[in-house]
Amino acid sequence: MKNLLSMEHLTKEEILHIIARAAAFEKGEAAQLNRTYNVANLFFEPSTRTKTSFEMAERRVGCEVIPFDAGFSSALKGETMYDTVKTLEMIGIDAVIIRAKEDEYYNELLEGIECAVINAGDGAGQHPSQCLLDLYTIYKEFGHFEGLNITIVGDITHSRVAKSNANALTRLGANVRFLCPAEWAGDFEAAHSWEDVLEDSDVIMLLRIQHERHAVSKNFSKDGYHEEFGLTAAREKRMKQGAIIMHPAPINRDVEIADELVECERSRIFSQVRNGVFARMAILETILKERA
Amino acid sequence: MKNLLSMEHLTKEEILHIIARAAAFEKGEAAQLNRTYNVANLFFEPSTRTKTSFEMAERRVGCEVIPFDAGFSSALKGETMYDTVKTLEMIGIDAVIIRAKEDEYYNELLEGIECAVINAGDGAGQHPSQCLLDLYTIYKEFGHFEGLNITIVGDITHSRVAKSNANALTRLGANVRFLCPAEWAGDFEAAHSWEDVLEDSDVIMLLRIQHERHAVSKNFSKDGYHEEFGLTAAREKRMKQGAIIMHPAPINRDVEIADELVECERSRIFSQVRNGVFARMAILETILKERA
Amino acid sequence: MKNLLSMEHLTKEEILHIIARAAAFEKGEAAQLNRTYNVANLFFEPSTRTKTSFEMAERRVGCEVIPFDAGFSSALKGETMYDTVKTLEMIGIDAVIIRAKEDEYYNELLEGIECAVINAGDGAGQHPSQCLLDLYTIYKEFGHFEGLNITIVGDITHSRVAKSNANALTRLGANVRFLCPAEWAGDFEAAHSWEDVLEDSDVIMLLRIQHERHAVSKNFSKDGYHEEFGLTAAREKRMKQGAIIMHPAPINRDVEIADELVECERSRIFSQVRNGVFARMAILETILKERA
């Protein structure tokens, strides 16, 4: 693996390898890297958990992290992404972790760049490290993917998480379904009522209502969304035994999920964050090991 | 000590312990910590000295500092302080150092959060690490607190420093007095003329006129404030032998204090900054030692 | 060398020493420093390559880097540069690396400041670390400076790079010429046509059109500038054998230089970035070695 750009590029074997290494790191194993690698985190959009998670994972696998302030860089002077990354490569950076608002910004990095590129979210495109931590979370819970009913709820067409996860989970044998207001389904086939998916789901994966990308639907207030598509306390009671709740966060409490459910027994929302460090250590090790 | 939120929570013994450890660190002693702790600095308001002082202290006690860019975090997406801190905890952070503009923002962190919380300033509330470095500075100078006349000058009602210091110094036996324009006294009993406090003060502690919080009084221009309530060269000459001048900084030169006095013999303004690193090392050690 | 403020302050011997140490670092030699020095990077203007290059160089010579967020510091509260730097000195910082928009901002740091000051760009003034990496790049290529024809092309009067380089290269024996639109020459004697300089130049050093400082000339569109003063593919073919192309970057592709030439055989544009880390290691070592 030279880069991690999109889940579509990963084979099933590569996915399972990363899950296995994440599990090993969680058990306390050290990264198998022969030297100190230099990395830089280029976050052109706000982020708390993805950025700090990478910062922690980078240190835990022994990287040197060179600070890069995306909001105060030469990108402001109109420098291209290629020139920015090539510059970092010449400075001695081995891998860049990038979040940017342009879909597939990484296409201009496919030729001429030697340093590894890890996509930490591209516009409404992919978010592969989030996907891999979600897969690791599901795997830890059930030990397999085959036959699991996994329901993704929310604004599917604008969600990086939905696309990355649907692709990978389907390939791993899970049965992925969507639930959302009709107007948000786009080209996806989706249920429009909890009744169709609530009681047989093994995993309910809630997506964030992205206020900063587009308003809650014209047809829904926040309260209205919660009532019709949110996970309420009454709905949680009807969930299957052993079923879990996931959310990539940040959460809009009482919109996607009732405030009181955020840390309930079924919730893996904060566990996902914890698992994210191990998944990202696995990603970094896998990619950096291939370098001299 | 699990957290450091407000001086009111510290016993006299805890205060004296931190002063003693600060003194030990200044003499070159190493921190008594058994492992590397992970910390993050969440500064939601601009800061130079408090933030860089913590950054330095954290490294000197052997912490790993995970960068957190408050101005570019998911707080922008409306994430609650609880969810932000819980996320950092799950990522593996042992202690967060927080500055925020809401008074007592930390109240929502009292339940459910395991990681330690160190308050680096809450709105117009408290600023306990500044207070502890001020106490250390006074202790180094006089060797005791009992009976010292300490005059705090400036916008008392809006000052975190004034509140934290008045509480602690009074408990330690000092005689704390205030000097300010009548309209800024609030509920405090205060002198309104230097004549009442100038010649018998052991410590004159100037507060910053906070342009960014509220303008200099309607009744005072900057020059007018300096003339009536600033420490001028003429006033400095009338100070008691051995008396010292303190200021938490940043300074407005020629407003709170005459430019020529900033580094005069009585001034401990830059020494306070130096002492701050030792005081914060003591705070970090005291809090982190209690963790596994 | 206590500070590095302007190329004019460096003797020829000091320049050659830094070039020699840069070469040694490039060959893998370690820095000759006896302790860990603390440094802080104060960038009050956006920067990618200078800032990350210093961050890397600092780590490679074994420094501890204390983060400083210039865009979120007490400078926003009106703190003077002197007070900011003095504060960092009291916190334990040994050297500050500063970029600021004021010409010769460092004049207020010449007295009373003990920590070393390295100028990483002052307004339209100097940019000595860029100059030293340029000199190192030229020296690596030709092994000497005497008699080289070096042509600097672009907005000379507003360029820190032009001023720093012209001064130093002339002292080192090179023959420095300028090429620019008549209205940009200021007090410099400059050619206004490529015909006068293209074929006998050993080094063509392109300057960035600084959109953020002033617009492309009223008399030139971007395309017009490229046609008349840009390095086009046709012009590159007429360059002398062994001649090289340099540019401090960030590049405006197809303005100063044709897109296809950026990584051509003659181009040292990305090599300059690589050399910058070694030059800055040499600067840091030279300055820090003189401290206790």
From TrEMBL, chains A, B, C:
Residue sites binding carbamoyl phosphate per the record: R49, T50, R99, H127, Q130, A249, P250
Organism expressing this protein natively: Caryophanon latum
Record keywords: Pyrimidine biosynthesis, Transferase
InterPro entries: Asp/Orn_carbamoyltranf_P-bd, Asp/Orn_carbamoylTrfase, Asp/Orn_carbamoylTrfase_sf, Asp_carbamoyltransf, Asp_carbamoyltransf_Asp/Orn-bd
Role noted for this protein: Catalyzes the condensation of carbamoyl phosphate and aspartate to form carbamoyl aspartate and inorganic phosphate, the committed step in the de novo pyrimidine nucleotide biosynthesis pathway.
Gene that this polypeptide is encoded by: pyrB
Ranges for domain Aspartate/ornithine carbamoyltransferase carbamoyl-P binding: 2-139
GO biological process: 'de novo' pyrimidine nucleobase biosynthetic process; 'de novo' UMP biosynthetic process; amino acid metabolic process
Cited NCBIfam families: asp_carb_tr (TIGR00670), PRK00856.1 (NF002032)
Family named by the database record: Belongs to the aspartate/ornithine carbamoyltransferase superfamily. ATCase family.
Protein name: Aspartate carbamoyltransferase
EC number: 2.1.3.2
Gene3D superfamilies, A to Z: Aspartate/ornithine carbamoyltransferase
Keyword Transferase: yes
Complexes and interactors: Heterododecamer (2C3:3R2) of six catalytic PyrB chains organized as two trimers (C3), and six regulatory PyrI chains organized as three dimers (R2).
GO cellular component, one term: cytosol
Binding-site residues, L-aspartate: K77, R160, R208
A Pfam family: OTCace_N
Annotated Aspartate/ornithine carbamoyltransferase Asp/Orn-binding domain residues: 146-286
Biological pathway: Pyrimidine metabolism; UMP biosynthesis via de novo pathway; (S)-dihydroorotate from bicarbonate: step 2/3
